[in-house]
Design brief:
Oligomer: homodimer
CATH topology of the largest domain in chain A: Glutathione S-transferase Yfyf (Class Pi), Chain A, domain 2
Strand content of chain A: 5-15%
CATH architecture of the largest domain in chain A: Up-down Bundle
Largest interface: A-B, 26 and 27 residues
Number of domains of chain A: 2
Structural class of chain A: alpha+beta
Pfam family, one (chains A, B): GST_C_7
CATH class of the largest domain in chain A: Mainly Alpha
Strand order of the largest sheet of chain A: 2-1-5-6
Protein name (chains A, B): GST N-terminal domain-containing protein
Distance between the termini of chain A: 10 Å
Number of strands of chain A: 6
Number of helices of chain A: 10
Chain lengths: ~250, ~250
């Protein structure tokens, strides 16, 4: 639940111009906090301010940049103003939340941390076709300072401009690449049991792996819009598997 | 336990000339059967006889060949001569064994089937550097009829002869590719908790994911030999993580 009183946990997120919360990785943590029903307040920080914000709070970076040496400061991050400690990286945050709030439902049920790490590796290798759609759409939706930062880093990654990267609607390339996305996500959908909304089963038994997938699937809904043809496609692909997941996660949005 | 009485479950495996059981995929099922302490007898079948054997038993193939259409008959397979039913593919066998033997320890603990499928995808994408070592070594260790079959299929896959594929000891290529294997397996090792031998924790709490990893790690020990430099490397890599796994699995060999 979002909360404005002092001393509640602080959740750091990145704003957009008009989409509301839009980042797939911070969505994982938003889902996690709401799932655990932990009071928090959201502070919105533009991309260029992430590193100074985390440094000031003394929150260690969770990874390095492509050179393997330079610390890479990323969101989501959370900060506990009472204990004066915080953590970044959505999986590390999930572990931290399970430890610090032992009376709330587990994000990583006993014995499943290794499975969660392997799940993240497997899922990450099946969202490659997604990036050409989502990186440009996100670039165009950010506030100016974040847009310049996001564009620069994603153009360094792709080697082309965001406008060149984006498969234009109506083109053959759009059709081919959209099909690739369907196939990649189909591999993810294939891991799920036929009758389960969630990774560990049922409709009411979410775990952090569901938020990993949910954060990236809801990204498509947010960037293209609830009523877009694109979202309608994703909702109905693979027997409605991914649409059902987002519906089952609605109570944690 | 291996057992010679009639009516016990039959476990189909592929022989080698002098290595004993050597196939990483059938090892997963051997570990699984021993873990569950189910009596079985092993029948050894050369590669060209796998398809006719499974057809005669009316066991459906678990996958298709590269063309996406032609059925691909593979081992491991198990067959229950009393119920007159069988199944192939090590993960499907694990599910089948959990269902048919409900009073034995679970291979796929409640709620972890999706995790197991994603684990298999993640693990499989981290054994790519292994194949150039293991496919040639296995080829050279098989009986003639299997050797010709295995060589043909693996050479079709790689586009070169097994002799060309194998990084010769003492060469720069050997060093580079062996290092790649260490790095790939290091990603797998990184998923594990520091103090756990097994995926779900502890030293006495194996699940089928441990047999997936174990089958491929023991492959290296079998192909190169217990006393080889190669096995000594694998045993000590990543803080001894993988060596510890094989040691913890010893009771199920």
């Amino acid at each position: 639940m979002s909360n404005n009183s002092d001393n509640v946990l602080i959740f750091y997120d990145i704003p957009s111009r008009c989409l509301g919360p839009w980042s797939p990785n911070t969505w994982k943590t938003r889902y996690a906090l709401n799932f655990k029903n932990i009071p928090y307040k959201t502070i919105w920080v533009e991309y260029p301010d992430i590193e100074p914000t985390l440094k000031q709070l003394n929150i260690a970076p969770s990874m390095t940049k492509a050179d393997g040496v330079t610390p890479h400061y990323t969101f989501p991050a959370i900060y506990d103003p009472v204990r004066k400690e915080g953590v970044t990286d959505s999986l590390a945050i999930a572990v931290w939340l399970d430890e610090r709030y032992p009376d709330t439902p587990k994000l990583i049920p006993e014995g499943t941390l290794t499975f969660h790490k392997a799940f993240l590796a497997a899922f990450s290798s099946n969202i490659e076709a997604m990036r050409q759609f989502t990186f440009p759409k996100a670039t165009w939706a950010l506030n100016d300072r974040s847009e310049a930062y996001f564009r620069r880093t994603k153009e360094e990654w792709s080697g082309v401009t965001m406008e060149e990267l984006y498969p234009e609607p109506g083109t053959e390339k759009r059709k081919v690449e959209w099909k690739k996305l369907e196939e990649e996500l189909g591999r993810v959908a294939g891991w799920y049991g036929k009758d389960n909304a969630f990774v560990m089963g049922g409709e009411d038994n979410a775990c952090f792996a569901d938020f990993m997938v949910g954060g990236f699937i809801i990204w498509i809904r947010i960037l293209f819009g609830k009523d877009s043809e694109e979202w309608k496609d994703v909702e109905k692909w693979h027997g409605g598997r991914l649409g059902r997941l987002i519906k089952a996660l609605k109570k944690y949005e």
